[in-house]
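Fill in residues.
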């Protein structure tokens, strides 16, 4: 309850505090003294069966108007997915609540078919979870105590059980076409899932699904965006394909490197591991503790997991010695011999940096950017600058080795599950982790999970330190070739530096988008701005912002462009790389025409529709003409208005540019980045864009 009050999210409105088990009882005292007629109260099933059911009974006895939203996820999710003691099945729960006097019960389930309607209490409604808002609106109008049972198994626990084979594996995988994605964040808002991760690209912030951590909940598909596709995965085919791949054979045979030759530690060795929950930090600590035991050391360890079930920070302490240890399993400030920073953001927290020492601490860090919950939910929240985080870690350590472990693991193994042991291998090779190689590999085998991949990752981590060039070559990923630039577009231009690079790349893409005429108009506009800027300053921030902003407004993603990007062979290759063995690629679209007819959900367009999409992509010649059937839609008119206004605005700002107006011009030119998303999401951001222009004193 305290965490909810601390959240910065706009939907975290709390009107009263209560202890665990007292949920809703505060309303008994508040209700007579407020003109609010009704209250919603959240409660988990673990809390409900522990003691929260007494609060429900008290509210029934007091006759207050309250709706309990009972999250029935079958485990005590916050503290480790333990079984719910004294829990009842959903059907028996409805009978209990009805007998006690609950006026109305609605079950919103992710899979309603799992329930036998005849087994439910009389009058209980069984709906799909998509009708959650409708259920809330209905229940708030009913006097007395009502209950909404939201039935969905804990997603994190379901992912764990699928890995263990105790739940059937879901074969549908979700992939985002980053070229279509606008980075609006709507999918993160709808799903609130940390596997929906923002990534920075040449064309701005985009979104990607982390296939390794994805819990196959599929709520991200509710995002109002055409960039989502699904593929069906056959495990047997995936295995056969992986075994034949050249990448797989490379992983099986990492190059052997020389032993670092560091002497075994005398006295106590102190190791600090920093990461986030759900990524195996505790497992790594246990593997290293086992390795130390097998090597004959006395061992103490401590895992501070806190709210790791919610992807919170995890810090693990490991101490081992050739002699008996002091009676403490926790490191003291300045005592770390090695810091293994599997999550850089966690490692550079002030209290964790305090364990380092510039005289003794050897550090290895992964520079992978794993977003926090706020970053997933709010597109305006950016990940801190990586170099500044590395500088913080450097200041409290004697040596630092760093690389992107998640990207390296993805390149080497096709998933990120073994990333942790890449970092461990690097820590061993640079002398921070003074344990025998054989003991570490033996402990990985004792753990018994993905032994071959984790041993390979450990060895590849050693290569990252011993032979950085070989490591870089092994983890390099082929990049999409930029469009071939027609130099005719740049006749009579004098671009140079970063502006030239930005314009060349985007002009080539505009030829793909429409034609050379549109690209030439783009080049000429940016060149005019660039010349005006050069007359005032050597800085190029204004023309760089115009190069990006004008391209964004010119290449707006209408039906033709979305179709072109969806069937782009580059994207199809990316799908195969992200989900090896994936078949039956299906586009999840919500066409405006169907939307206008009242269709509220996306439609799946399977393989048979791909030919139609290719034909639609060729219709770009109609874009902006009277024959364009999509051009009459309101959002398309707005997009054309934005382009015309922005062009006139930046040319006007350039014509009157001075050192005094320069900062305002740069800020105004960069505002198109605000306009993200599709349909209603985009229109909402257009309003924000225009408001910010007015704040700068520019007519929107």
């Amino acid at each position: 309850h305290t965490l909810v009050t601390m959240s910065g999210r706009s939907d975290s409105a709390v009107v009263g505090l209560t202890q665990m088990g007292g949920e809703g009882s505060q309303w008994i005292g508040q209700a007579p003294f407020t003109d609010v007629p009704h209250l919603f109260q959240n409660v988990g099933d673990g809390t409900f069966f522990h003691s929260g059911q007494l609060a429900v009974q008290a509210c029934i006895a007091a006759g207050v108007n309250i709706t309990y939203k009972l999250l029935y996820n079958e485990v005590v999710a916050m503290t480790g997915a333990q079984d719910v003691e004294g829990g009842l099945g959903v059907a028996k729960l409805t009978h209990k609540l009805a007998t006690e006097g609950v006026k109305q019960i609605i079950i919103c389930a992710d899979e309603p078919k799992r329930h036998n309607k005849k087994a439910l209490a009389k009058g209980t409604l069984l709906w799909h979870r998509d009708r959650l808002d409708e259920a809330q609106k209905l229940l708030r109008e009913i006097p007395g105590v009502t209950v909404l049972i939201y039935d969905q198994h804990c997603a994190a626990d379901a992912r764990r059980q699928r890995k263990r084979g105790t739940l059937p594996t879901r074969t549908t995988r979700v992939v985002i076409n980053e070229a279509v994605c606008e980075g609006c964040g709507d999918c993160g808002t709808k799903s609130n899932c940390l596997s929906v991760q923002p990534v920075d690209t040449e064309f701005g912030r985009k979104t990607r699904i982390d296939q390794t951590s994805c819990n196959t909940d599929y709520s991200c598909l509710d995002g109002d965006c055409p960039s989502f596709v699904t593929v069906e995965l056959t495990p047997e085919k995936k295995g056969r394909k992986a075994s034949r791949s050249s990448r797989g054979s490379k992983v099986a045979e990492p190059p052997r490197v020389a032993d670092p030759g560091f002497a075994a530690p005398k006295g106590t060795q102190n190791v600090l591991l920093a990461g986030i929950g759900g990524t195996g930090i505790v497992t790594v600590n246990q593997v290293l503790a086992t390795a130390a035991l097998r090597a004959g050391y006395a061992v103490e360890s401590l895992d501070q997991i806190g709210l790791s079930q919610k992807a919170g920070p995890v810090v693990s302490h490991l101490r081992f010695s050739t002699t008996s240890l002091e009676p403490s399993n926790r490191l003291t400030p300045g005592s770390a011999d090695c810091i293994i920073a599997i999550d850089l953001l966690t490692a550079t927290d002030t209290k964790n940096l305090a364990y380092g020492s510039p005289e003794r601490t050897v550090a290895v860090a992964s520079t992978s950017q794993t977003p926090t919950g706020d970053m997933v939910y709010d597109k305006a929240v950016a990940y801190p600058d990586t170099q500044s985080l590395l500088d913080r870690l450097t200041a409290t350590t004697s040596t630092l080795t760093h690389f992107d472990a998640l990207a390296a693991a993805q390149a080497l193994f096709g998933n990120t599950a073994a990333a942790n042991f890449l970092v461990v291998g690097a820590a061993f090779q640079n002398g921070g982790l003074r344990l025998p190689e054989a003991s570490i590999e033996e402990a990985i085998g004792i753990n018994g999970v993905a032994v071959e991949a984790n041993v390979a990752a450990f060895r590849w981590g050693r290569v990252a330190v011993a032979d950085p060039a070989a490591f870089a070559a092994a983890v390099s990923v082929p990049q999409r070739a930029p469009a071939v630039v027609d130099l005719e577009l740049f006749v009579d231009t004098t671009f140079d530096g970063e502006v030239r690079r930005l314009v060349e790349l985007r002009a080539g893409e505009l030829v793909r988008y429409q034609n050379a005429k549109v690209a030439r108009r783009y080049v000429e506009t940016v060149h005019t701005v660039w010349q005006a800027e050069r007359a005032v300053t050597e800085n190029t921030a204004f023309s760089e912002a115009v190069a990006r902003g004008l391209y964004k407004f010119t290449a707006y993603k209408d039906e033709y462009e979305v179709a072109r990007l969806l069937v782009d062979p580059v994207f199809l290759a990316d799908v195969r790389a992200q989900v090896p063995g994936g078949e039956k690629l299906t586009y999840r679209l919500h066409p405006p025409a169907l939307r206008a007819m009242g269709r509220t959900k996306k439609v799946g367009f399977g393989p048979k529709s791909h030919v139609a999409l290719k034909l639609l992509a060729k219709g770009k010649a109609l874009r902006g003409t009277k024959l364009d059937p999509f051009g009459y839609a309101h959002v398309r008119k707005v997009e054309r208005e934005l382009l015309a206004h922005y062009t006139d605005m930046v040319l006007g700002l350039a014509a009157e540019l001075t050192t005094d107006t320069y900062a305002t011009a740069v800020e105004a030119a960069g505002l198109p980045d605000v306009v993200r998303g599709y349909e209603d999401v985009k229109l909402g951001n257009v309003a924000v864009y225009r408001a910010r222009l007015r704040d700068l004193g520019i007519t929107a």
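The mean pLDDT is 88.
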